[in-house]
Design goal:
Length: 791
């Protein structure tokens, strides 16, 4: 209620003030129209007396001031025209000083002063000096600020600057500088004093009001920056020290923050660069509550943009040792502001790093130095969990990746992993993903085991459980995504030198072994394929080469591969392990290493026997085994017989009859390999096909017993297609008569009342018959071969 009353009262007082101004303005206009100087001065003084109020907030006072300001502009036009009032400007300057109250007197004095300077009857510097001194007579913060703001406004175009029409003899632009500096200093004192204008409980309201008036003070600095005579030397020796003296001595956090920001924004970048030491020297002397990190960040941002604007300015940065000065200043500020939160310090280091990457991208030692300072600040602290801090640390660590587009450069920074160590587990993973994404996006190849070691140390949050976390707590989808990223990363680790590549593989293996069983199914396959890629490159080498250090050889790598795949037994993941053993067997076959290939097959069969229990998985596994064995050409007769015997044996032992049938007829390919030197054993092919036919028959009868009707004839048609394949390949045991008999059998089965009609089977059979007809009509040797078959 009291607040609303206060607002209402203020509105009433403002209305009264405006009414007073309008009332006196009416008589003022009448006096001006009749060229009556005495009346004009009387009513202008009465009008300006309304500005003596202390009841209004700065915001409302400004409204009142603007009304008075408009009238003063009109009065100034009158004062300029001596013909209208018949009084010389010197006499007028004396005359207005007889006004009764000091505030109206000084407003009138400033107005006449402006006319006095334009008349050039007295040096501009003398009039300005007189005015700036006289304005000391008003010490009320709000009234004084607006009065001095009026003085700054009217004198702005009348400063004795270089090439100005008001320039006097000698270095008078220094008088202009002196005038603006003096006015600035007085205005700043008044502005700072505003905070003591009310009770402490209204501190927040007072700060808000002060904030509204800050531009009145800041405009002085803008005027200073526009004075032509203020070159680098004047700025360095006079302007900056005087302004900073005011900033430091006012000991007010609002003023210090705003004015430091003003200095950075209004003066040229080139000046900042050449006066860095002076500007930065003031930072540790500011109040501890000042948001110095934002001030310094803006300074570094401006300097970064300046450096980016032209390559020609870069030597200046080296010449003034900008990085060293900024780095030292940040250190001192952090030291001086004991209560500065961690997030503030890290933000400063992010800005410094951004500056360094812009200005000195080639100086990795500078980048590492910034990261080192960050480590020092974080040392002794618990893991960072505050999201604002971790966000800044991620920004700090991401900056070098974004700049260099090359993780290899970041890997040379010794302090990079140390900063990462301070992140909590979740953020550590986020950062690790950022690193991997950077590598993938830029197609970066990490080519030495040392760099791989550092890289895997950086992304350890994804590779193993960091203390306090467990894989069981993770979201399944997130976990899969993370591990797939690690798997993709492994394909980016490469070196043309086999010796170094083997070291890389060993390094990766060491790290992923520490990650626990849950991660192995994701990380083992890419590692196995990296090793196999190396084996294929080494196919030309076989056996060990004499020398001090045993080089990378296929045998050595296969031994390592055996260990790697064995590790999957702890998961357990037998189907995956079996696939990988078969891949290795195939690679050993290409390297002509029969014992190694046999060993891998043995391991695959052992897994099949002991670990693969699911019937579907068994079907897939046996087909993989048959397919791989069929492509092997390294085995001697004895070893091949042993393995094919095993494969056919397991095929016949599958749980479901249709699965048995298909696996057994697939085994027929083991006895007829179409290569130049391949096995061609028609007898055993026929044996397999006949056996599969018996199983298909048994399957048909079983369906008949259990369901009262036979199943479709699909299996018979599939076997028929196998017969046709081997018939075309020229197996003497597969005759046209046998194919004829099988066709008749299928037709009989299809016409049987107990057989269930199946469109897919029927279409399959029709398509097969169509193929036979096509071959018969084709003519030539193949046509003759097919001719005896009657459809």
């Amino acid at each position: 209620m009291m607040i609303s009353n206060g607002i209402e009262d203020e509105e009433k007082w403002l209305a009264e003030g405006i009414a007073g101004i309008q009332h006196n303005a009416f008589y003022l206009h009448r006096a001006l129209d009749s060229n009556n100087l005495r009346e004009a001065l009387k009513y202008s003084a009465l009008l300006l007396s309304e500005l003596r109020t202390s009841r209004l907030s700065p915001h409302k006072y400004y409204e009142l001031y603007m009304r008075a300001f408009d009238e003063l502009r009109r009065l100034e036009m009158f004062f300029k025209d001596e013909n209208r009032h018949g009084c010389s400007v010197v006499d007028l300057y004396e005359l207005v000083q007889h006004a009764g109250n000091i505030l109206p007197r000084l407003y009138l004095l400033c107005t006449v002063g402006s006319v006095y300077i334009k008349s050039k009857e007295a040096p501009a510097k003398d009039v300005l000096k007189d005015l700036v001194e006289m304005c000391r007579g008003v010490q009320h913060p709000v009234r004084g600020l607006f009065l001095r703001s009026y003085l700054a406004q009217i004198s702005r175009d009348e400063l004795p600057d270089i090439a100005s029409e008001y320039e006097g003899e000698g270095d008078t632009f220094m008088d202009a500088v002196e005038f603006v500096l003096q006015n600035f200093a007085e205005m700043n004192k008044l502005w700072v004093r505003m905070q003591h204008q009310g009770p402490l409980r209204e501190r927040e309201k007072l700060d808000k009001e002060r904030n509204e008036l800050r531009d009145l003070v800041g405009k002085n600095l803008h005027v200073l920056s526009q004075i032509e005579g203020v070159d680098l030397e004047i700025y360095r020796d006079t302007v900056l020290p005087r302004v900073l003296e005011q900033v430091v001595n006012c000991k007010d956090e609002l003023a210090q923050y705003y004015l430091m920001d003003c200095i950075i924004q209004v003066f040229p970048d080139e000046y900042h660069l050449q006066t860095l030491e002076t500007l930065l020297g003031a930072c540790p002397q500011l109040q501890s509550a000042v948001d110095i990190k934002t001030v310094l960040s803006r300074l570094m941002e401006r300097l970064s943009n300046y450096a980016a604007s032209s390559p020609e300015v870069l030597p200046e940065f080296l010449q003034v040792e900008a990085f060293t000065k900024l780095s030292n200043a940040i250190g001192k500020v952090i030291e001086a502001q004991v209560d500065m939160p961690i997030v503030g310090a890290i933000t400063l280091y992010v800005s410094l790093l951004t500056f360094t990457l812009h200005v000195h991208p080639d100086r990795l030692d500078y980048v590492d130095q910034v990261l080192g300072a960050c480590v020092k600040k974080l040392s002794g602290k618990a893991k960072l969990e505050d999201s604002r801090v971790t966000k800044q640390v991620v920004a700090l660590l991401s900056a070098p990746l974004d700049k260099y587009n090359d993780i290899v450069t970041a890997l040379t920074l010794s302090n990079y992993p140390r900063v990462m160590d301070h992140l909590d587990a979740a953020t550590n993973k986020v950062m690790a993903m950022v690193i991997i994404q950077s590598i993938m996006k830029n197609n970066t190849c990490v080519s030495t085991s040392d760099k791989v070691e550092v890289l895997f140390e950086l992304i350890k949050g994804l590779i193993k459980d960091i203390e306090g976390t467990s894989t069981d707590e993770l979201d399944e989808e997130d976990f899969k995504e993370e591990q797939n990223s690690v798997a993709r990363l492994m394909h980016m680790l490469y070196n043309d030198d086999p010796e170094e590549m083997l070291k890389i593989i060993n390094t990766v293996w060491k790290h992923i072994m520490a990650g626990g069983p849950k991660r192995l199914p994701f990380t083992v396959p890419p590692l196995v394929f990296s090793a196999l890629k190396l084996v294929r490159r080494l196919q030309v080498q076989d056996g060990d080469v004499a020398g001090e250090e045993v080089p990378a050889t296929p045998k050595k790598i296969f031994q390592l591969l055996n260990q790697i795949i064995e590790a999957l037994s702890v998961v357990p993941s037998p189907e995956l392990a079996l696939r990988l053993y078969l891949q290795c067997a195939e690679a050993a076959n290409d390297c002509d290493l029969e014992p190694v290939a046999y060993e891998f097959f043995t391991q695959a069969f052992v897994l099949y026997e002991e670990e693969v229990a699911d019937s579907k998985a068994q079907v897939t596994a046996i087909h993989l085994i048959i397919g791989t064995l069929q492509r092997m050409n390294v085995f001697g007769i004895e070893n091949r017989d042993t393995l094919t015997h095993k494969a056919t044996g397991y095929s016949a032992k599958l749980l479901k009859k249709p699965d048995q049938c298909r696996a057994v007829y697939a085994c027929s390919h083991l006895f007829w390999v179409d290569d130049q030197d391949g096995t061609k054993d028609g007898e055993r092919v026929l044996l397999c096909l006949k056996r599969s036919l018996r199983i298909a028959n048994a399957a048909q009868q079983m369906v008949n017993v259990t369901r009262g009707s036979s199943g479709p004839v699909t299996l018979f048609v599939e076997i028929l297609n196998k017969y046709l394949y081997f018939f075309e390949k020229g197996s003497p045991q597969i005759t046209g008569a046998a194919i004829q008999g099988l066709i008749e059998l299928i037709k009989t089965e299809m016409q049987s009342d107990s057989t269930t009609s199946n469109p897919a089977s029927d279409a399959f059979f029709a398509s097969t018959l169509r193929y036979i007809r096509f071959q018969k009509q084709k003519g030539g040797a193949m046509g003759e071969k097919y001719d005896p078959i009657k459809l």
